[in-house]
């Protein structure tokens, strides 16, 4: 239940993607005065699917949003989701099945549906649109207040800024205290499309993809297929990567957009010589799939926080999507920061310590998931130490998925509170 404000400070969130929105809702529910500023004219998501692992599902449950999401999807879409790996060059040739632990229940859904579930929960007067943040400055010397400047010439004064403004974050340069140099091309492109399952069947596609997600692996390339809309639609993401150069060593040619639509032939060319199911899938892809030149935050940030300004989600740690974990990490950030800001002992005079603790708890795990996501891509693409060996792939992926999905976020909250007590920022012995 939402509670009346009990704080002597205000929070402004910049960016209303999933991280910012969930954070705003969690703060609203904790009774923290919060406003959200979004650059676009309305909340919106791209036309694609999103997979949320059990760690993300636990956050939604803890924030009281899981029921809202479940109302929008078929109940069976919350389930244990293993992954079945196939040799992309073969003919329906299973490499191995990754059996998730029974308690690892995840969700696959359309991003727009996810947003539809979240948006009505945020009190409308808290959301401000067409507000593109251009800079953050401190008020007068000695004041803890901050000013957010927007492109339309307006500004907003607040005590805490949470930058949830995605990989192209405008808030990040404040945290870096320098011009932002942390966005790098990942040497990976992804082709994306949504395909009706019946079209796949008609095209002669044989691999079962309605129940469990499937991953077709092969040299330097792989395909992820997972069902949304109760299996009526299959979300397709096809990756092509280079491993011969380090991340960040190459930039896109000037003027090349990060996301563009391309003729289907460009995608087909990449997968020439792959097996019959991939050929069937190609027939069903939209004529102009979208091509994403995936960028990441790299090198990693030393801290997600500076003073009273904190980063969450892709603004802090945009990663390769190979474990389907990016949004989940944003949700974990949103949960921890909102639990700490909403804690009864957090007030204006200990905000800096509280935000530092947020960064200290969240940064190592988010960075580890960043690294594991990259490593998982290399495993799918037969670039890991064990190449295409099925047992090697299974073991590697199990350790990655277990790390991401089996996390105890309540232990993180306890750890953070105990650290704040040790530092003397929280003084009460019991709450
Ligand atoms: C191909 C691909 C597949 C993926 N699949 C998955 C998956 O299955 N599961 C998963 O968990 N993750 C997945 N991810 C990652 C996931 O999409 C991101 O981690 C997640 O969307 C990040 O959410 P966010 O709210 O932090 O940032 P964003 O979604 O980027 O939202 C940022 C928001 O801030 C706004 N904004 C930007 N700049 C400003 C500004 N200056 N002022 C005000 N507002 C601003 C934007 O308009 C936007 O609304 C995938 C990513 C890719 C590329």
UniProtKB/TrEMBL annotation:
GO terms for biological process: secondary metabolite biosynthetic process. SUPFAM superfamilies: FAD-linked reductases, C-terminal domain, FAD/NAD(P)-binding domain. One of its GO terms (molecular function) is oxidoreductase activity. InterPro entries: FAD-bd (IPR002938), FAD/NAD-bd_sf (IPR036188), FAD_monoxygenase (IPR051104). Keywords: FAD, Flavoprotein, Oxidoreductase. It comes from the Eukaryota. Gene3D superfamilies: FAD/NAD(P)-binding domain. Residues 9-173, 301-370 form the FAD-binding domain. The keyword Flavoprotein applies. Pfam families: FAD_binding_3. PANTHER family: FAD-BINDING DOMAIN-CONTAINING PROTEIN-RELATED, HYDROXYLASE, PUTATIVE (AFU_ORTHOLOGUE AFUA_3G01460)-RELATED. This is FAD/NAD(P)-binding domain-containing protein. The lineage of its organism: Eukaryota, Fungi, Dikarya, Basidiomycota, Agaricomycotina.
